[in-house]
Amino acid sequence: QVQLVESGGDLAQPGGSLRLSCAASGFTFSLYGMSWVRQAPGKGLEWVASIRSGGSDIYYLDSVKGRFTISRHNANNTLYLQMDSLIPEDTAVYYCKSSDDVWGQGAQVTVSS
For 59-68, b where at least 16 C-beta lie within 10 A, e where not — what string? Predict the structure, then answer.
């Protein structure tokens, strides 16, 4: 069964940090590019970051550059998103997805004092 399961969502204060994880199973994780996509309350889906299968090419949404870091551990079939210097505008449900359009269930991130 092809599956992506996010974890690590939580409430954080502005300026704080969180790390999201996405555990993959049921497919050869190392062969696929992976992305993080978010959906803020009342808004549409917004792409956040992507990483190629080998991890060498990485891309970010301008508003998260310098604050977020996407990474992957192919041996552990896991994708990560390190989020630092969080701001309230980062509040959203964060989804991981594969390049062949498999999606996780989402992790809630709330940034508030």
Answer: ebeeebeeeb
Q: What is the pLDDT along the chain (113 residues), one digit of tens a residue?
A: 999 999 999 999 999 999 999 999 999 999 999 999 999 999 999 999 999 998 889 999 999 999 999 999 999 999 999 999 999 999 999 999 999 999 999 999 999 99
Strands, E assignment, 26-103: 34-39, 45-51, 58-60, 68-73, 78-83, 92-98
Residues forming beta bridges with residue 67, ordered by sequence position: none
Strand partners, 69: 82
| Spatial CA neighbour of 71 closest among 34, 26, 107, 37 | 34
C-alpha angle 43-69-53 in degrees, rounded to nearest 5: 95
Q: How many residues belong to the chain?
A: 113
